[in-house]
Amino acid sequence: MNTLKTAFFLTLLTLLFIAIGGLLGGRSGMVMAFGFALLMNFVSYWFSDRIVLAMYRAKPCSEAEAPELVGAVRRLSELAQMPMPKVYIIPTEAPNAFATGRSPAHAAVAATQGILRILNEEELTAVLAHEISHVRNRDVLIGTIAAAVAGAIYMLADMARWSMMWGGGRDREGRSSGALQMVLMLFAVVVAPIAAMLVQMAISRSREYQADQSGAELSRKPLALASALQKIHAMARKVPMEANPATAHLFIVNPLSAQGLVHLFSTHPPVERRVEILEGLARRL
Q1: Structural domain boundaries of the chain?
Q2: How does pLDDT run across 148-165, given as a tens digit for each residue?
Q3: What is the pLDDT of residue 115?
Q4: d(C-alpha 267, C-alpha 96), whole Å
Q5: CA distances from 262 to 9, 150, 183, 267 (A)
Q6: Which sequence positions are flagged as catalytic?
Q7: Residue 93: count of CB within 10 angstroms of its CB
Q8: H-only helix segments in the chain
Q9: Tens digits of per-residue pLDDT, 112-146?
């Protein structure tokens, strides 16, 4: 179901991009914007692991330094039949973890010092299974595609805004193009970028649900993952993490506060809903 949702949302993003490009009437500009967005996201995709690990001052660790952490990653990688990711520790007491890398052969799993302190062995294993599932499910690639299309939509919206400012809403004879044209241009400028962001966030939330399910099945510990999510969520309020919003989607629990309507723009589904689904999965397993 979550895979179908992801495919649906990616298709929706693409159709939104095509619609705005057709509305502006500039095929060459549309292609240039899309090409530039692809280039930016290709670079981000190729070097994202180094960038984000450096951003959080993550340090590589050996099995001698963190036997429980590295040993769990090794066992889960063997179960998932994929190369073992590199393992890093982030020097912060805020509990969280993330996985990054452009493919299973070029992946890294990072855990904070805080998460290692508050989780027991089963909970830590369940969290790491979630992160390894992100790698196995190619979620970095999916997120990059979504970001590329959304980025192109933002650029087209900027083009529409400048077109309106410099008289793009008038025809060759200088007459007004009409109320309908103006409404469509306003849609391209205001509504389309918000819609693109909402769809991009929906894709991220769908991948979190999928990683929860895949990780629970890999570790066979859905209740341990549910318990870990509750612990991390509760502790994150007491010990907030200094996280960049651009990388918030990577973490197992959103390191940024998201209350009320802000959930619409959150990269993560509500922890309560994730726990409810995991409890249902535990009963089925």
Answers
A1: 1-285
A2: 677 777 777 777 776 666
A3: 97
A4: 15
A5: 20, 19, 27, 10
A6: 131
A7: 14
A8: 2-24, 27-55, 67-80, 113-118, 121-136, 139-165, 179-186, 192-219, 222-238, 271-284
A9: 999 999 999 999 999 999 999 999 998 877 876 77
